[in-house]
Write a structure and sequence with these properties.
This protein is mainly alpha-helical. The protein is 58% helix and 10% strand. A hairpin with a 5-residue loop joins strand 1 and strand 2.
């Protein structure tokens, strides 16, 4: 399936839109992992990132299938605005989604099923999703098995900071979506 269709299906499966660029990347990352699809993800500061996914999302926006809202939610310690980009399917996007569901009914059902597993695993914020994605990347790197200390050590070696609470939620999340195997 093309990345653009995968991103469209992800927006549809998560209630017609996804709030936040980081959450968008991580939710699509996990959908891809669960479905055995790779849409160009590689390690990045906030965990796995895909330029393909970002480009597909931008393309959907530029074609008026997605609406982007910029929400300022504060300022950082240096005085820079902190913003979140929220995406929702437009009326044309909803129509396209319906057409694509008919074109790829099996793929839609699989994505919807996996999105529901992600939603049922808990309402993680974007940083917790990023931590879960980082932990999963480390698990894969370690041959599918690791403990908390291994995850922390490898993450720090990659320049990723680890928050204990976020790590606990990440581990719980990975267990719930059946992607974790702990030593």
């Amino acid at each position: 399936m093309q990345t653009r269709d995968f991103v469209l299906f992800a927006h549809g499966a998560f209630g017609g839109g996804i709030s936040g660029r980081t959450a968008l990347q991580k939710k699509i990352y996990f959908l891809g992992i669960m479905l055995g699809e790779n849409h160009g993800f590689s390690p990045h500061y906030y965990g796995p990132y895909s330029a393909q996914v970002a480009d597909a999302n931008s393309e959907l926006k530029s074609l008026n299938y997605l609406k982007e809202e910029v929400n300022v939610y504060g300022w950082d310690h240096q005085g820079f605005e902190m913003v979140r980009y929220d995406y929702s399917l437009t009326e044309d996007g909803q129509k396209l989604l319906q057409r694509k569901k008919k074109e790829y009914p099996e793929e839609w059902e699989k994505i919807l099923e996996c999105a529901n597993r992600i939603k049922d695993a808990g309402n993680l914020n974007y940083m917790e999703l990023a931590m879960a994605a980082k932990a999963y990347m480390i698990l894969k790197r370690e041959g599918g098995k690791a403990d908390r200390n291994t995850i922390k050590t490898v993450a720090e070696g990659l320049g990723w900071s680890i928050d204990e609470t976020e790590l606990d939620r990440a581990i719980d999340f990975l267990d719930k979506i059946h992607l974790a195997y702990w030593k």
